[in-house]
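May I ask for a single protein's sequence together with how it folds?
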Amino acid sequence: MGSFYYDKGMRSFQLKNYEKAVQDFTDALAEHESSGAYQNRAAAYMYLGNFKLAGADYEKSIELITELLKKTDKSKTKYFEMGLRDILSCKSAIAYIKLEKRNFDQAEQLNSELLEIHSAIINKDLIPQNLHVSHVYCNRASARFNLKKLDHAAEDLAIAYIKSNSGDIRANAMVLSNKFGLADKVNEYIESLTHQNYDLNFIFKSDDHLRYENGQHVSGPHGGAFREVKVEPNIHGGEGYTVTIFNTERNEASMQIAPKQMKILYADKEKIILRGFGNDIFGTSFEDYGLTIYYSDGDIIKIALHMHDRNIDIVYFTI
C-alpha cells in the first residue's frame, strides 16, 4: 500500500481536504489497485456527499478483498480476520448510503444481512470489533421506522442501547427513540431484555484461549492452556451472578481472575452478555469487566472475557 500518492491521500484526508484526497487516491489507484485506496476514496466521497461514487468504491473494495481472501490460507488468522472486518465495514457503509438515499427496503435488508454475517463470524473464533453492531441496529431501526415497522424499530433501538459500551451510541439510540416517538416502547423492550431470568450456574472447562487487544488477535492458541470459567448465582446473595476464572494446568486449580459481580445486559438463543456492576470491598469497580457466553443448539461453545478498560478480550474454548 504505502505509495507516494496513497500517503498523500491519507494526509489530505486527515487535513479534511476531501477533494484533494479523492484526487490523491485516484492517482494511487492509477499506479496500483488496492482495496485500501478504494475504501479511503469512498470515505472521502462520503464526506463530499457523493454517495453514488462512494458506493461504487466500497463495492470495488469488497470485490478485491474477496478475491484476496480466496487465496489466503485460513490458518493465517490475523490476515483473514482483517479482510473480513474490512468487508463488513464496507457493507456497513453501503447500508448507510441506502438509508441516506431513502432506499429503506434495501437499507433494512442490508443491515439485517450484516447482523447475520456478524453472528455467523463471531460464533467462529473471530471477533470483528470494528463492525459497530449497535450502529447497525440504529441504522436498521431508522429504516424500519420509515417503513412503519414501529415495534421492530423500537426493539432494534433497545438492543443498540443494551449492546453498546459507548455513551455516544447509547445517547444516539435515545435521541432516535425520542425523535421517532418510541421512547416508551424502547424503554419497555430494555426492561424486558435486561430482566429475563436465567439459571446460570455452571463451570465451563476450556482447553485453550485466544487473546485480542483493540480487536486484533495477538496470541493463542497455545497448544493447551487449561482454564475453568465458573458462573454462579451471586455469592453474596444479591442480584446477578459471580464470575471466577481458574487456571487448571498441572491438575491444580489456582484462581486467575478473582470473583467479579455481574448481571445480564442482553440475551438471545446465541449468546448471553453480562457486565460487571458495583464495587469490591476495596471500592474497585466491577464495571470494567464483562462476559459473553456463546451457545450452539443450547450448548456453550465458548466464553469471552472482556476487560473493557483495556479493550482486551480473551476467548476460552474447547477443542
